[in-house]
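Service request form, structural biology core

Requester: graduate student, group of Dr. S.
Request type: structure prediction, single chain
Budget code: on file
Notes: please return the result as structure tokens.

Sequence provided:
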Amino acid sequence: MARANNDIEEAIRLLIRAAGSLEGPRIDRWEDLGLTVPQRRVLVFFRDRPGATAGAIAQHLGVSPYTVTGLVDRLARTNLVRRLPDGADGRVVRARLTDEEAHAVAGLDEAGRERLTAMLRAMDGPRLQQLRRALEELIQAPGAENPDPSDGSSPVSWRVPLLAGPRPVATGTDRC
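Core staff response, request fulfilled:
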């Protein structure tokens, strides 16, 4: 039992290191823009759901709509997102990435994919096949929540940074 626990802890440590080597440059880019983690999460949400409302973002992020309004205000002031009126309901405001930011986010995704491709090409064939089989087993393990995009689209991991998952709902006093 102790050996199994040690193997699990070592696997976790190695997965975190691998993820860090892939995400590091992307996170550095976001930090160069002076963005907070919540702001990055909002940008990723807009990338995947253009024209989303504050309520949809708040529900996904587990924060109050008031918090989302502040995040979107800051992003709009820096021209990373733009607000759009909802044609069906004048009270609703939607937001989306600016064209420039959408292009920048896509570039980050591509840079991450290129980095991973280079790392995998450095492995010999049998080791690469062994890694592929191990990863297939991991994503099929009980508790794994990794959808398989059957339409040939990019894997979810390339479209959503490690820090972009939903969080528990917070109160109106949360700060970002």
